TrEMBL record:
Damage-control phosphatase ARMT1-like metal-binding domain segment(s): 21-362
Originating organism: Streptomyces aquilus
Any single Pfam family the record assigns to this protein: ARMT1-like_dom
Protein's UniProt name: Protein-glutamate O-methyltransferase family protein
InterPro entries (UniProt xref): ARMT-1-like_metal-bd_sf, ARMT1, ARMT1-like_metal-bd
Keyword 4Fe-4S: no
Any one Gene Ontology BP term: methylation
GO molecular function: metal ion binding; methyltransferase activity; phosphatase activity
Catalytic activity: beta-D-fructose 1-phosphate + H2O = D-fructose + phosphate; beta-D-fructose 6-phosphate = dihydroxyacetone + D-glyceraldehyde 3-phosphate
Length: 388
């Protein structure tokens, strides 16, 4: 068993975690503020949040705040009074989204209850010409052999993870940088074996829009071909990390598909029918927005995932939560750091933060020789890792 490195904090100026707290979060506050005709109370609360998240300390949730008990279970009391930069990065990031939702009145009561502050950005992406193009490409794919379709849809879902609005906010050039198609780790053969004839596939979604659409297409394909009997799509219980998918985002994506025409509409109808007959279900467990690694998941979720043939975790944040948000030596075996997970698990992720495991020494050496450490955070590399 490898030695366990400490969890990532955000206290090192110049590091990626530091930039997220010092730059990305203030930028998100600014964008949300501009996107809605908020009133003076909300503007004041956003000012307070901005000051607090960059210069202040963790302050307790009010006694009557919704979800306060959960946050107490998730370690709030031990962080109170400490700088956001000195506590685990994973924790302070989740806290930021929680406090942002408080500031705009998301948890209510009041007229802004349930109004997703990120919805305008998510909808803009769903309506973008890029989404049109991606959906139109499905018409050509429809004539290809089933295996080729499955492969294309799997890679669509994987690379869809580049479409992360939080990431693009703090890295304006991200989209223009060319992706490197060769995966840094590729267990897709093991993934195919697990998916073939699977009873239950749990897919833990990441971003809405241009990531969720290909996730849904992949699920539709697997269900329609009978490769998977049923699928459970785990989404966030509330808006999170800007573009993370909620139930409302699934509904928007399904509507987008069904009105697209062509092959896309066929996928949309398949998914709509699968929702109706129970082959596709949604799950929004509160732990989906917890500031903790999956190793700490509660018993009910553990039991549920233990019953799945395979759980596929999408994206960078889920990867961090799966392996623990630690600076592992990159060659630490993936199977070792995911041994805690209650069943077979796969990660589909583009690399957008420092955490990485499961590389061969040769792969790591080649990446470092070519790019220094930029490959870790640039969003140009991707991986498929499986622990059967
Ligand atoms: O999980 P996702 O959408 O793939 O990526 C999330 C992300 O943009 O946000 C985190 C930093 O704020 C990092 O894990 C990563 O850069």
């Amino acid at each position: 068993m490898s030695a366990i490195p400490p969890v990532l904090l955000s206290d090192e100026p110049g590091s990626f975690p530091y930039s997220v707290l010092a730059e990305r979060h203030p930028a998100i506050v600014g964008q949300v503020r501009e996107a809605f005709p908020y009133g003076p109370d909300q503007h004041r609360a956003l000012d307070t949040l901005l000051e607090n998240c960059t210069k202040g300390v963790i302050e307790p949730l009010p006694a009557d705040a919704p979800g306060r008990d959960l946050w107490t279970d998730w370690g709030m009391d031990e962080h109170i009074g400490r700088s956001w930069f000195d506590i685990p990065w994973l924790w302070s990031e989740s806290w930021f989204y929680r406090r942002l939702l408080d500031a705009v009145g998301y948890f209510g009561p009041g007229p802004w209850q349930g109004v997703d502050p990120f919805r305008p950005f998510k909808l803009a992406e769903l309506e973008s010409p890029e989404t049109d193009e991606e959906l139109a490409a499905l018409d050509d794919l429809a004539d290809r052999p089933a295996e080729e379709q499955a492969e294309a849809l799997l890679h669509g879902s994987l690379w869809g993870n580049r479409a992360d609005l939080g990431f693009r906010l703090s890295d304006g050039d991200a989209e223009a940088r060319a992706a490197v198609p060769a995966l840094v780790a590729d267990d897709s053969a093991a993934l195919r074996t697990l998916l073939d004839g699977a009873d239950t596939l749990c897919l833990v979604a990441d971003n809405a829009g241009r990531e969720l659409v290909p996730d849904l297409l992949l699920i539709a394909h697997l269900l329609a071909r009978g490769r998977v009997r049923r699928a459970v799509l785990h989404v966030k219980s509330h808006p999170y990390y800007v573009s993370d998918a909620t139930t409302a985002d699934v509904v928007d994506a399904l509507r987008r598909l069904t009105r697209a025409g062509g092959a896309a509409a066929g996928y949309g109808r398949e998914l709509w029918a699968a929702m109706a007959d129970g082959r596709l279900t949604l799950r929004a467990h509160p732990f989906s927005c917890a500031p903790l690694p999956y190793e700490a998941m509660p018993d009910d979720l553990r039991a549920e995932l233990a019953g799945a043939t395979l759980t596929v975790l999408k994206g960078d944040l889920n990867y961090r939560r799966l392996v623990g948000d630690r600076r592992w030596p990159p060659t630490t075996p993936f199977a070792e750091v995911t041994a805690h997970f209650p069943g077979p698990v796969a990660a589909l992720r583009t690399l957008k933060s420092d955490v990485i495991t499961g590389l061969t020494p040769a792969t790591e050496a080649a990446l470092v020789a070519a790019e220094g450490q930029r490959w870790r955070t640039g969003g140009t590399h991707a991986l498929i890792q499986v622990r059967p």
